[in-house]
Amino acid sequence: xxxxxxxxxxxxxxLLVREWEEAxxxxxxxxxxxxxxxxxxxxxxxxxxDGPYEIEAAVIDLDLGGKKLGLKTLGAAGGIVATDRxxxxxxxxxKNFPIALRTADVIDDRALAAxxxxxxxxxxLPLWGKSSVAAQRLRAFVLDSLDDVVQEAAYGAVMVxxxxxxxxxRGENLLGxxxxxxxxxDVWRKLWDGWEVEPAILAAGYRSHNKFWExxxxxxxxILHLRDQGRGLHELNGERLRLPDYEEQIWAxxxxxxxxxxxxxxxxxDLADSTKRxxxxxxxxDLSEIxxxxxxxxxxxxxxxxxxxxxxxxxxxxxxGEFLGVYGQVLGHPxxxxxxxx
Length: 342
Known about the structure:
Radius of gyration: 24 Å
Mean pLDDT: 88
Strand content: 15-25%
Number of strands: 13
Shape: elongated
Largest sheet: 6 strands, mixed
Low-confidence stretches: 67-71
């Protein structure tokens, strides 16, 4: 049987070729998306054995970090693009072989890439690590799936689901569908191209830089909160993210952090009294704003004259910078934007 491996690391391909050959599996290693394109068009990529090729399964490395696309590496965006191309080819050819994801460490950008790949597929995708044990379990899954319908999780896979979130009472959104809706997609692309944040937002057609982030604040804050709690987006197992619930958790943690900071500063003996007063006044102001907001009393007058209970936003700039830093190379990659933009 033939198994297609898409992985930019030569050593990974050689290892699986050697270990899986004993089980009668021929691993066809494509180390970039150009080789994949040749195979999907019916050709023979350089270095491959002669055809015909009977693909019974495909394994995609989530991070094709070493291969270039234009001036930048594909990185974790490569896993999304490869998933899209394989699912389209599978549909055209009438084949129904399993497609699996694989990566050594599921850090932030790979977690996002995994859930977007699952959204592209329209179904949960299995994800294995790269340890020798994981490779053996993946091989067992591939072999057993030839004869029967098997459950990937029984072979040690993490099942990666498309992420759905709920902002309020108006239904739910798929993460990729929401992030690439119209002008948002233009923002991510411009940031990937090196634009500064505020000009990128304004050039995409938004009237206000701050309004853009206020609209996305609690989705961004929730994603970062989950990450800090040790839960990647790929580990939600189909759980819907109710942003109002996470907002309550985040405010409670922020209050705790501010209380601790006030206590620590008050205890410091090496600070000048004047400096200590300034720091404590700032921390207490932040704490008071949050407590007033949660009590429904942080009222500010809008241009139309209405008084509105306003969310404090002292962490917004920090959160937006961190979010773009860890997820931006996937969000704005031109191939990913092309797949999701609508």
